[in-house]
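Appendix C reproduces, verbatim, an entry submitted by the partner laboratory led by Prof. M.T., so that reviewers can inspect both the input and the predicted structure.
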Amino acid sequence: MRTETTRDGQRGSADETVGGRGPVIRRVLVAVAVVAAVVVAWSTPAVRTELTKSFTRQDRPYLELYFIELPSYVGDRVEAQVAFTPHGGVRSTGPSAKEREEGAPRPGADTFVLKAEADRDGERLATGWATVRAVDGKASVVKVDVDLPKGEDADALRVSVAGRSEYLIGHLEATG
């Protein structure tokens, strides 16, 4: 019987497993089992979706909000056209409790509420509300308007999304 010395200095016979094929076979079997588990998991739609999400960049949901038409006076009213576009599956949280006390409408599940505030020198003169039904990735044009108290002029119109932080401000020129 012949003896051989393994790399770690142990002695064993040539036909025993020390330094033989045993560890290699185990590694191959473990690798085959891991590959089989991944293939089985990949064939399940829920797992495939989660794995895809974990390996791809996901954009954060956001809203686009901008003036199409700058605010202007129409009699004792301030009006503007606003474009509203949700992206990435943004959902309406609805107006806050304070906004509901101020008269905000109660929207449906896929409807957002826009709050328009006419200000002069940072002081709110009046508030108006508009609703918009959201379609992900599709722009909707919304007319917002605020009825001003008689004889009052505003210098800015602030349009915000109720219950969210997005807003924009358009400045007005005095009517004279």
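Helices lie at 22-42, 45-55, 97-101. Additional entries are available on request from the coordinating office.
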